[in-house]
Design goal:
The chain has twelve helices and ten strands. By secondary structure, it is of the alpha/beta class. It has one domain (about 5-230): TIM Barrel (Alpha-Beta Barrel), CATH 3.20.20. The strands form two sheets. It has an eight-stranded parallel barrel, surrounded by ten helices. α2 (about 25-40) crosses α4. The protein starts with 5 loop residues before the first helix and ends in a 6-residue tail after the last helix. The structure holds glyceraldehyde-3-phosphate and zinc ion (ZN). Zinc ion binds near residues 85 and 207. One of its GO terms (molecular function) is fructose-bisphosphate aldolase activity.
Amino acid sequence: MLVSAKEMLEKARDGKYAVGQFNINNLEWTKAVLLTAEELKSPVILGVSEGAGKYMTGYKTVSAMVKAMIGELNITVPVALHLDHGSYEGCYKCIEAGFSSIMFDGSHYPIEENVEKTKELVAVCAEKGISLEAEVGSIGGEEDGVVGMGECADPNECKQIADLGVTMLAAGIGNIHGKYPENWAGLSFETLAAVKDKVGDMPLVLHGGTGIPEDQIKKAISLGVAKINVNTECQLSFADATRKYIEAGKDLAGKGFDPRKLLAPGTEAIKATVKEKMELFGSVGKA
Ligand code: G3H
Ligand code: ZN
């Protein structure tokens, strides 16, 4: 069932667990995430970056595919289709295409402009029943061309944005997209606690969910994180399983080159990663 992310995140915040956002890239990715969520009776958010949206030929194609798949796979758990790190223009395109949730990443604008644009989108989303994520501070590293410096969010700016009525807030707390470097200092729980103090009940979002140690994930959830984004880890699992299949020569045996066979190990690997994350985030059985 395609829904806004609002209710599932409020339940997660109250129940002290987090809903995973898993970014999708194609049919196999989408199917793997949806089937795992259904099997584990977990709510789930399908993330679509602007780059992935283009790759899948456009937001309307993505939206149609996800809606049809939810129906044909009999997915009963709550599913949100969410634009990840959206530009101002991208947000409007996804609203038009029928997404149930969007992220406006205005973190690279001066705070006044971020506020102004977020405010406008709050009104549009409220009218359409779409959930809206905003970002303050920035997530380090690079994801699909979105580059962040990784500065921690200013808690007062977080309050300014939260007070506009967004559904959820992504605050930079030392998190990074992609693999974490060896010398990574870890999440800034000081920043997270200060943000939480200012924004009260607002569900918080942790980006860069790949490779964060379990104890830090659990602590972040205890401090108000209700949504955790994972992208790179599924890509790494997919690539690793596909490489092993090819290196073992299985693509050359029998009909192993058939894409339905060739892509199967990678698809199963995505399912395993999603399962592991849902168990860690505590969302299993919460649908
Ligand atoms: O927006 C998506 C994420 O923040 C994913 O980060 O690729 O490090 O898992 P990741
Ligand atoms: Zn992100």
